[in-house]
Amino acid sequence: MHPTQREKEILIKLSEGFSSKEIGASLFISQHTVETHKRNLMYKLQARNTVHLAVLAERQGWTAQPTSQY
Questions:
Q1: Residue 8 main-chain phi, psi, to 5 deg
Q2: Can you give the pTM of this predicted structure?
Q3: Residue numbers of the chain with a pLDDT score lower than 70
Q4: What are the backbone angles phi and psi of residue 44, rounded to the nearest 5°?
Q5: Which are the contacts of 11, defined by CB distance < 8 A and separation ≥ 6?
Q6: Residue 9: how many CB atoms within 10 A of its CB?
């Protein structure tokens, strides 16, 4: 299973240390919606908690941000 674009955005923010409340505010979605995406991601990766989720997502390459071309 692969993450949706929104799930990738949330994973990147999580890996940068943002809280669910901060992620919601930055993406203009509710904290509850962020928690739902996190729960779905944890199911997809069989993660035990948010830290485990971030580690597994990094291993899968899901938190890599595209590099800009100058």
A1: -60, -45
A2: 0.85
A3: 66-70
A4: -60, -40
A5: 3, 41, 53, 54, 57, 62, 63
A6: 16
- 17 sits in the region (left: phi over 0; alpha: psi -120 to 50; else beta) called left
Q: What residues contact 26, with CB distance under 8 A and at least 6 apart?
A: 13, 18
Sequence-ordered alpha helix ranges (H) in the chain: 5-15, 20-27, 31-45, 50-60
Looking at residue 52, its pLDDT comes to: 94
CA distance 8 to 61: 10
Helix (H, G, I), strand (E, B) or coil at 3: coil
> Domain boundaries in the chain?
5-60
Give the burial class of 54: count Cβ atoms within 10 A of its Cβ; 0-12 exposed, 13-18 middle, 19 or more buried. Answer: buried
CATH topology of domain 5-60: Arc Repressor Mutant, subunit A (1.10.10)
